[in-house]
Structures are given as structure tokens and as C-alpha cells.
Amino acid sequence: MSDTQDSNAEARQKLVDLAAEFYDQFERGDIPEMTLPTRTKSNIVFDEDKHVWVYGDRTSTRSANSVRGARKLLKAAYTIEFLARQLEEDRSSTLRELYYLSESWDNEEAQFNGQDESNKLVEDLEIVSDVKREDFHMRPEESGATLIGPLELREQTRRGERVIHCQKDVGEGGYQIPNNPDTIEFLDHDIDFVMCVETGGMRDRLVENGFDTEYNCMVVHLKGQPARATRRITKRLHDELGLPVMVFTDGDPWSYRIFGSVSYGSIKSAHLSEYLATPEAQFVGIRPEDIVEYDLPTDPLGDSDVNALESELEDPRFQDEFWTEQIELQLDIGKKAEQQALAARGLDFVTETYLPERLDEMGVI
After folding, report:
1. pTM to 2 decimal places
2. How far apart are CA 75 and CA 103, in angstroms?
3. Binding-site residues
4. Domain residue spans in the chain?
5. What is the pLDDT of residue 363?
6. Which CATH number is 146-361 given?
7. N or C: which end of the chain has fewer CB within 10 A?
8. Which residues are catalytic, by number?
9. Class of 3-131 in CATH
10. pLDDT digits 0-9 by tens, 40-94
């Protein structure tokens, strides 16, 4: 049996074990139920030792002792059956397809009312089975996130293995990150550090200016709030290759949260923080002090920006002297700025001055 078949069989067995537990509860005369961590903001805690978000001790129970609870378990059972069959056939599907597929299920009560419901159920099954959705062969809609840099890798595909160099064998669009980056094997590299970039415009500027070549840099395009696959491959680059990870974003509270998602994990995927988050990542994005020092073009902070910044002052991810100072400065000046605002000082300023000086100060180059 191949490694893929072994992985499929293991994931399938864990799903079958969940369904078997429902059956055993029926046999014992118990009301079927499923217990999992309470998935609310109030039950998310920051693990000070691991520096990631994790679920707390509170749990909730999905029980068939109510019509609503019975419907949830029925939908779980149908979804487990679908996923188990998918793994047996070595097929895959998207989260969107699962929602539409439920329309064909023979019991209308098992059909989903919307994609949010089916998405959440898949996350629930991840938690109770301890199997990631990627191992269920469930894919999100394509994120299109890419990377480009001096890395040679081997990728497992349905057409067999292929070896790719992420500069020599790709165009300027880069190598598209697969849904499950754990199918990738790193073969060789000349990378000195990883630069995760929020926006497509700045990613293109770095590539056009040859930043990846000049500084042996792996440029990872986050595409805004990064997908799980993007965060996973970033963590692997750090953990397995020992590479510093830098996060380059806009200078606003929502971009600071993008950094927080890469480095400490997100509330939505707290059950996977140790798998996705890179606590050692460092911020090289636009700082409020840059807005002042470089006299960057700005936009005024809106009410939602102010509220978000004030919230971040209480956020464990931003509880240090640097962030407190920067956030308070931003509230004081009342401004925010995009990465592309650096172009006001010339198209080459970001790659010839801004990033080299910042990375030198941080001891990265």
C-alpha cells in the first residue's frame, strides 16, 4: 500500500470511528451526542508557552435530545459517509461542492441551509477526529496564493511526481501553493529568508525589481488574509529549513491582524495553530513611525480602524513595547498607509532602501 493509500485509510478509519460511536450510543440506549470545544471568541485563549491561539476548556455538546441537535448529528452522519467514500475512491472535492452535493442527499433534513453551515461542520469533524480537512481531501476554492524564490521541490500530483525550481521553472507569476503543502518535499534551496507579502501589487514590485534574486529571498504572496495552505507552507519553510520569516503588510489594524494570523494563528482555526502558525515571524510592514518619517501618502483612520486599534492594545498578540508604541502613535496621528504608498519616493525605493535598511536593522541581511 502506498503512502497516499495509508494516509487515506487512516483518515477514513477515524471518520468511521466517529460514526461507530453514534451507533454504539444507540445500542447502549443513550441519546447520541458529539462533544467538541466551544467555538466562540470567549473560549479562545493565548498559550503563553507556545505563543499561539488555542481552544480553552469549555465544551459544547451536539445532542439528539432536541430536533435541532438531531438535525446537526444527521448532517454530520451524512457528511462522514460522503467523506469516507471520497477517501476510499481517492477523490477530492471543494467546500463549495459539498454544500451543493447535499442537495442530492435522500433525506432533506440532512441538507445544508448554506455553505457557512457545511464549512463549520467540516471544521467540527476536523476537531473531533483530529484529522485535517486537507486529509479528508476537502479543498477551499482556489486561493491562487503563490511563492517565488530559490527553492527546488518535489510535488506529488495525480500525474506522478514532478520536480520544480521556484525561480527557474516558473514565470513571474510564481509557483502556486497546493491545497495540501504537506505533499511537497523540499529538495534544495539557496533561501536566506522568507518574505510574506500582503498585496499582489507589492509582490509584483519585489519580483519585477529582482528582490528574490538579489537577496536570496522566498517571496510568499499572502493575498490578504492568508489561506491555510499559505500559512502551512510558511511554517514548514521556517521549521524545516530554519529560515527567518518576515511579514510585510500595509500599515493599518487589519493588516496587523494578518501578521497575527501568520505568527500566532487565527481564532477560526485555533485547533490547528500549532500546525499553521509561525510564532517566530517578524513584522516588517508599514509602521506608523514610517508614515511620519517618510511623509507617506495616507488615509484617515475611520471609526472601525480606531476601534480595531484599541482592541489590539488589549490583544495578547500585541502585548509588547513595540506594538504598544506603534499603535498609540497611530491613534495619535489618526492615519493609515498602504505598502504601495512607498512608491511616492520612487518605484525602486522599497527594494533599494526601505526593505534593505529594515532587514539590516533586524539582522536578517
Report:
1. 0.87
2. 12
3. 198, 250
4. 3-131, 146-361
5. 95
6. 3.40.1360.10
7. N
8. 100
9. mainly alpha
10. 878 888 888 888 888 888 988 888 889 998 999 999 999 999 999 999 998 999 9
